[in-house]
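Good morning C.,

I know you're traveling, so I'll keep this short. The sequence:
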Amino acid sequence: MITSLLVANRGEIACRVLRTCRDLGIATVAVHSDPDAGARHVRLADAAVRLPGAAPADTYLRGDLLVRAALAAGADAVHPGYGFLSESAAFAREVRAAGLTWVGPPPEAIEAMASKTRAKKLMGVPPLDPAALTEADLPVLVKAAAGGGGRGMRVVRDLAELPAALEAARAEARSAFGDDEVFAEPYVEGGRHVEVQVLADAHGTVWALGTRDCSLQRRHQKVVEEAPAPGLPPGLADTLQDTAVRAAGSLGYTGAGTVEFLVAPDGTPHFLEMNTRLQVEHPVTEAVYGIDLVALQLRVAEGARLPEGPPAPSGHAVEARLYAEDPARGFAPQTGVVHALDVDGVRVDTGYEAGDAVTVHYDALLAKAVAHAPTREEAVRALAAALRRARVHGPATNRDLLVRTLRHEEFARPGRADTGFYDRALPELTGPPPGEEYAAVAAALADAAARPGPGAWRNLPSQPQSKAYGGHEVRYHRTRGGYTLPDHPGVRVVSAQPGLVLLELSGVVRPYRVASYGDGAVYVDTPEAAHRLTPRPRFPDAAARTAPGSLLAPMPGTVVRVAEGLVVGCRVEAGRPLLWLEAMKMEHRVTAPASGTLTALHAAPGRQVEHGALLAVVRPDGSPDPEAPGQPVQPAKRPDPGEPVLEEDA
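The tokens, ready to paste straight into the viewer:
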């Protein structure tokens, strides 16, 4: 029996495993890097051991340190979670060699399937050799042989792009998994990502726990998942489950695993890989089958037998991943303090609470919200409503994107959405949420209500006062009777308090809940939308003005490399990669916004930069020399969603 378990992971999945251990009466040990010293998973555990450093390669990817931590804390078992070393046969062997129970499949099974290249050969689908690709093979997907989570993946449609794609994929795979092996496979246009959850014990029983559809992805990382996979051709679900059971049985597999397929538009399935670990999206399977997969993993690791067959499935479940990222800016990851994270009415798995900080060191997943209902339509509606009503304050998130996705006509049709959904629909799914103008009005009135009236309501100014948020300037009169809005004659201010403003629009009174935390943003929540507004200063900050063509860091991160031959004075072409930033385990490419001359370069490999830091300056062709006499200094040029300044290398 397992009495004390070390979770060799962090964030949401560590908290998820700790919750089940608490329910089962198993003592828990957390590990943490220096940035995670006060993280939620550390607070939830019975004990914690420090892993000195910040980078994954120095902390969560150090199997020797993890085993040493387990022994020091008196743990007798290790659960790897997902990511990091969860698919490392070497780590599994280290754990076992130390006399600890490994909560996962045998190292031999991991070794057979953890490398996607070996897995494909075992399944009779040999991968493509990147060195032997021809135009006839295109398009292809370059992938890391180890790990998952969309890291180390690149779509190549032109052979000229292949060398850069291979280099970037290797660098990202090395950083995330400690293994830079990559390979290529045919890229199926318009395919659906469908997978099968398996669970096996050491006595020969293998369960296939239905299908999941994980087609909605950005940067090859899943965003929305559901179970069972809707709209599959007749008999395909059974075929996929039979294949998954045979694969697990042939390996002598034990524990939880997932066999993944890409289903072409004509219904033909293509084997992708087998993940020998728990998946991020496992909660939708748990909801449909009424089980706890982590508890079953622990029972299997203790040697228990599974029943002959799994429970009967019931209903439909949908999961949405809430990320700290800005979808309108290429899904650029965001950092900062989480001030509020309240999602009610559905299951929420998270590694954050109010007061926790999202840093540049790890991925941007804030939480997973899961709804379960008798039908797909009811589950989707429940999840959309819960996210719409949620209070998520802090870094910018993809919450509005998720709500609009769940309401999108294409997603509403079972089995219609494929892996290219966001490529097609992103423009209509991003942009300001509806009613932003009235949210700005509410923010201005809440701010005014928090300040005492001048002279105890005597000698009020005859002209309206004003406050600006982004592109909205709000003018208002403050009187003994309340507030009036000269630019919005059809709006009546019913009540204005520091945290709550009631506005009557077209005869309907609507509440606007307003909050601020000193981080420079104002958060306004309504029953229909959420708004994150940035107050606009009345007078521009002269210190923020800089030369035209300045490229500012679109996010905090570390400069991992600078383009070869890039020196001050050289000419660059529009779209040329200038440097690469690493943030939140992803590599981001900063490119020249226009053709011109590089007049300054402040980036160097290994340098950590904050958001907005000056990286380089490109003076566009034909523009005046800013140092020439009489030339005015212009405001800094910040990355714009329509400019090729930041590209996601994933």
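Safe travels,
E.
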